Amino acid sequence: MAEAVAVRPLIETRGVRREFVLDGGERVLALDGVDIEVHDKEFVCLLGPSGCGKSTWLRLVAGLDEPTTGEILYKGEPVKGPGRERGMVFQEYSLLPWRTVAENVALGPEFNGAGKRERREMAMDYLARVGLEKFADAKPHELSGGMRQRAAIARALANDPEVLLMDEPFGALDAHTRVLLQKELLRIWELDRKTVVFVTHSVDEALFLADRIVVMTAHPGHVLEDIRVKFERPRHRSVAGYGEMTERIFALLESGEQEN
Ligand SMILES: Nc1ncnc2c1ncn2[C@@H]1O[C@H](COP(=O)(O)OP(=O)(O)OP(=O)(O)O)[C@@H](O)[C@H]1O
């Protein structure tokens, strides 16, 4: 009989501590003793209240910051800086205002030396995936918030990253657009099967999206629980056990508040 082979996680953070020293000399312990693993093709949500260090953790994995102590590993190798294989999507749409939507999406391929025609084709392909082909030649200010965030996702995808690191990407959108984009993101994820790490403070959003929810709490930021979500997709709130799971996560978050 074949032996079970332990598969190495794509992302591993071990004993991660990140302390910030504020201008006045005060120290803020944003993360302490954080061990999180993310496996290839998983959709993981980091869920927790404001200030529990979700963005800090994501920035460490993106290579935009370094831990005070602890290890950040990608495919078993220490993260030393940003890399194409780890694409970041921020809450603010972060599109360059002087470039058209297509030119924004083609930014990564342009850095990688793709020619004009190839860039256009790639941009149109990725814009089609997020339903924005018609706005290829518009400027970002001509788009709604939801459309700008779609463009930002297309731009991240155009780099063909292995993992999408998404920092509350839908936080600034109205409820309806948010639900639409959640569905679109799942559709893209199911097609491409990228690994996704998605930061949110919405229990509802995490339960709709994730294979696993890493529940965090603050002061200092640490992991309370790592929950596997087994509901079939597409998910409906009316499915058996959904309400209980929601209650359980809210209770966890409340227990985290009381800890502090
Ligand atoms: N560059 C920085 N300098 C000083 N303190 C920082 C810095 N970045 C984060 N912090 C502090 O670290 C803690 C965690 O912040 P972080 O933004 O990671 O939390 P978060 O869970 O993502 O919050 P939110 O959901 O509000 O974005 C906070 O107390 C924050 O003030």
Automatic annotation (TrEMBL):
Keywords: ATP-binding, Nucleotide-binding, Transport. SUPFAM superfamilies: P-loop containing nucleoside triphosphate hydrolases. GO terms for molecular function: ATP binding; ATP hydrolysis activity. Gene3D superfamilies: P-loop containing nucleotide triphosphate hydrolases. This is Nitrate ABC transporter ATP-binding protein. Residues 16-243 form the ABC transporter domain. It comes from the Bacteria.
